Description:
The chain has helices spanning 3-15, 82-97, and strands at 18-31, 34-47, 54-60, 69-74. By secondary structure, it is an alpha+beta fold.
Amino acid sequence: MTYIEELQDVIRHLHGVESMHVESVPVKETFQGKTVWEGIVEVFELHGHPKAPKAYAWSYKTDNPKKPVHVTVLHIPPVISPLLAVRAAIVKEFRSLEPTEEN
């Protein structure tokens, strides 16, 4: 299975639709002058999704080389570009790391 097919499989599993690869977009996100994420975002056209015409997807390696993390972000405003998809994913990951308040 190719990398693109792997991402299409993830999109199919998570979002329940077929997709067609459209393009590969290099993205570099910086914060306060430092690179916080750099890589290639794959853009897919979605077939039959009720809310999104496209999805953005990529993966990154973990401690286990056989289990990379796959990220998919739907093209739903305000996420309307590969860069904004990366920003949304970074914010989501950052928020998941924040401690929660317990009463």
